[in-house]
Structure formats: structure tokens, C-alpha cells
Design goal:
This protein has about 180 residues and is mainly β. The longest helix has 6 residues. Strands 1, 2, 3, 4, 5, 6, 7, 8, 9 and 10 form a 10-stranded antiparallel sheet that branches.
Amino acid sequence: AAQVQAFGVNSERGASTRVFAANNTYSFVCIQYGQPLWKDSYDAQAEKMKGATGRLGKDFWTTFNTSVALNIGGADVAPGAYYLGIACSKDGQWSLMVIDAVTADKNAWNPLSGDALKTVANCPLTKGMSETSVEKLSIDIAGESKDPTKFSFAIAWGKHTLTAEATAKLAAGNAKSAEPAAAHP
């Protein structure tokens, strides 16, 4: 008989939420993730990510729920419930892996499944470096006040950053008066 083990994991969770309000209708985008602590030794691992996929965050899946169609970095994401991963091509191009949560659960995929994961979208990310180091992983979806349907998707960990421009595709006539909500790290 197979031996079954259960591990209790309690961790801090980070969250970033964006709310669009238009004509008394609300649309939401929410990311929830575990926040691993940065270690300087991770700098050497960035090069090892080339040609690989991995989990984004700590513990179980980073979850991504949206009630509005989005375009992130040029890739379309339909409303739905997703898990997020991270990928780096052999030439160093980073992307956000958007994985259908229902498909992942039915196939017993987990955040450590690696290359076996199938995505519904691969959103290109721009790699950068910051002057200051972020101790805990941060994922932020922050918007503009001029056009609340446009916002940025930003990942920061250590001095490394990955960013993409994003747009919420609200139904015609529904973008009248959107107010961005503050992110909640």
C-alpha cells in the first residue's frame, strides 16, 4: 500500500486586486500567492531558468481570477479561474504562464509539474533590474487614473522585475467610470 503523508502548511499570502466599476457593474481581477523570501544565492539560479518553466510563488498554486477579458503583454486571457506559472525561453524571454485551473485540477497538475503544464496563454514579460531589493515576492496589478482599463502587471523579487502592460476589455459602453482599487500586498 502506498504511504500517504499530509503536511500542514501555513504561510503568509500576498494578494493583488483590481476592481473596475462602470454603470453600476463591477469587474474584478485578483491574484493570490504565497510570498517566498529572497536569498542572494537565487541570483545564480536565474540563468538556470533559461529553457525551463516553474511555479510562481510559494506553496500551492498562485491563483488568478478575472471576471473581465484581459490582454496582458499582447496575449488575450478570457474571464475565468486560472493558475499562474513562469517560463523563460532558451534565449531569455520571460513569460507568465496562464493555466486553466479546472484542466490542471482534472489532470492532477501541481505547481512543480514543470514542462507538463499546458497553458491557455503565455503573456510576454519584460525583464528588468531594480536598484532596491524586494525581500518577499511581490505581484502587483496597478492602474492609471487617466484610463483605468489600462494597468501594469509587475512581479518583483530581490532586484529582479518582470513587467507587462495590461488592458481590461470592458464591454462597449461599460468603461464610463472605472475607479482603480488599491493593491493589497
